[in-house]
Amino acid sequence: MSADRLSLDIALARETFGLKVREDLALEGVTAVFGPSGSGKTTLLRAIAGLETASEGRISFGETVWQDRAAGVYVAAHRRAVAYVFQDARLFSHLDVQGNLDFAAKRARKAGRSPDVDAAIAAFGIDGLLERRAVSLSGGESRRVALARAVLSCPDLMLLDEPLTGLDRAARRDILPFLKSLPEHSGCPVLYVSHDLEEVAALASAIVVMEAGRVLANGPVGEIGRSLDLGPLSEGAGPASLIEATVTRIDTDSGLMALEAGGETLLLPTAPGAREAEKLRLFIDARDVAIAVERPGPMSIRNVLPARVGRIVSSDAAADALVDLTIGSELIRAQITRHALSELKLETGQQVFALMKSVRLAGDFR
Amino acid sequence: MPDLGPVLLSLHLAAVTTGILLVIGVPLAYWLATTQARLKPVVEAVTALPLVLPPTVIGFYLLILMNPSAPLGAAWVSLTGGTLSFSFSGLVFASAIYSLPFMVQPLQSAFEAVGRGPMEAAATLRASRLDAVWNVLLPQSARGILTACVLTFAHTIGEFGVVLMVGGNIPERTRVISIAIYEHVESVEYAEAHILSAGLLVFSFVTLVGVYALNRSYRLRVS
């Protein structure tokens, strides 16, 4: 799959903020649009889809120009070959599930594409729902139908607006694999809006970080995660770290697997289906990381790694301080009380030990 | 037994008026439900005028408008050879004006209740505007459309003042049920007046019960 280039140079005035984006995105697989709510993620996605008719500037995708106000070009939403999965699924309430799927497939065929309804039904596990009315579906079911419907539209670009919002953790865990396989089933790149760092970590290969209507950064997730503290931008969750690790050994006796991250070894419960040499993304809540100035004695915590203190963020306004810890080439954040910070006399550059009480796979939602 | 001609004429008039208003009302109500034009309140007010004006006022102006010496009346004469006033066509024209809010307002409410969401979803699934209106908006507004048609039909049957002014009282042409009742009462034929009046009362009541049972959410806003 070659990368499709999405060129954006758009501006859109809103009551609460102005969207101003000038980026060239090479889209491949899942690209996350990440930022706090009100940062313009959804507006950006809607502008790309052609749903924000007041947007100014230029949008092109691959060779196709979708919008060029200077040249008087504005391609209507239904001619852009994008599929959009809305936060609230937006299934057609007057049709059953089959009717919803056929709606998309019929119009895709008219546009000269070849949607495979049976394949989509199988891929999203909805064969038991076909005769159900859209309104009778659970949150998770309706998202799956919405995804299948979007795939059957045979788009060139798939736009997803927080498709996991409003679902409980179990439902989110169920849907995640479907989202992961979306580029494969749709055969096109996916732009995925989310304010949840963990979702991003679990799904996306690249990330576009937004704040206040502007793009702060864009690039591979691992790179951006190291250079930019995404924690404060993540809603609901406190500060956290995201690191990439490679499975080095799977021990069936203990049920643990060893992972290598930044030159150090971590032990985690074996993930179902994990293979040796596989790359996994790990999510570490900053509150689950403790700091010791000397190597602690025998203890229950498995992951104790030598680390070097980096930046320390502490203010009189909060009881807690944030401490960046460098472990090999990776960066992990620890949230400790200011009281502990002053008692341990932590300073930038100091050698310490990071005690990680809990490390989990991104997207595990446990 | 009274002459059933006026009853049939009323039903005919109501059916034709409802059909015409449905064709006019859907695009007008869609425009009202979706536009952000500054003109919107003006158009809404014009649409709602028949609800507040006395039928005599509407009837008076329509009469002037349909007069063969007025542009509209003259155009009609040159087009069809007959006059618009005191004809069935004139009644249809007048009914379409005074029943307009009964079609447009429930439709507008229904379209607004469906909202932008499903239309946007349709657009992102390659459906053109017309396609989306036809295959998403209208099916999802089905109950509102039915309500609008029933109310328009019933209101057209019940109108008296405008009909009397622009149509007069010509048997088989403009003598609708309400006029016939008036005529019977004037002539002290109370038995005939009773039969027609009670029939209209029962018809209206059953219709309204049907409408309200069908849906509580598409009521008229002004009346």
From TrEMBL, chain A:
Segments forming domain ABC transporter: 1-237
Keyword field: ATP-binding, Cell inner membrane, Cell membrane, Membrane, Molybdenum, Nucleotide-binding, Translocase, Transport
Molecular functions per Gene Ontology: ATP binding
Domain of life: Bacteria
PROSITE patterns the UniProt entry points to: ABC_TRANSPORTER_1, ABC_TRANSPORTER_2, MOP
Claim: Disulfide bond is one of the keywords in the record: no
Transferase keyword on record: no
UniProt domain Mop: residue ranges: 298-365
InterPro entries: AAA+_ATPase (IPR003593), ABC_transporter-like_ATP-bd (IPR003439), ABC_transporter-like_CS (IPR017871), Mo/tungstate-bd_C_term_dom (IPR008995), ModC_ABC_ATP-bd (IPR011868), Molybdenum_import_ModC (IPR050334), Mop_domain (IPR004606), P-loop_NTPase (IPR027417)
Family matches, as Pfam families: ABC_tran, TOBE
Protein name: Molybdenum ABC transporter ATP-binding protein
Gene it is expressed from: modC
UniProtKB/TrEMBL annotation, chain B:
Localization (cell): Cell inner membrane; Cell membrane
Residue ranges of domain ABC transmembrane type-1 in the record: 7-213
Membrane topology category: Multi-pass membrane protein
TM helices/strands, residue ranges: 12-33, 45-64, 76-100, 145-166, 195-214
InterPro entries, per the entry: MetI-like, MetI-like_sf, ModB_ABC
Gene3D superfamilies linked to this entry: MetI-like (1.10.3720.10)
Keywords recorded for this protein, A-Z: Cell inner membrane, Cell membrane, Membrane, Molybdenum, Transmembrane, Transmembrane helix, Transport
Domain of life per record: Bacteria
PANTHER family tied to this protein: MOLYBDENUM TRANSPORT SYSTEM PERMEASE, MOLYBDENUM TRANSPORT SYSTEM PERMEASE PROTEIN MODB
Role this protein plays: Part of the binding-protein-dependent transport system for molybdenum; probably responsible for the translocation of the substrate across the membrane.
NCBIfam families for this protein: modB_ABC
Entry's family note: Belongs to the binding-protein-dependent transport system permease family. CysTW subfamily.
Protein name (Swiss-Prot/TrEMBL): Molybdenum transport system permease
Organism: Henriciella marina
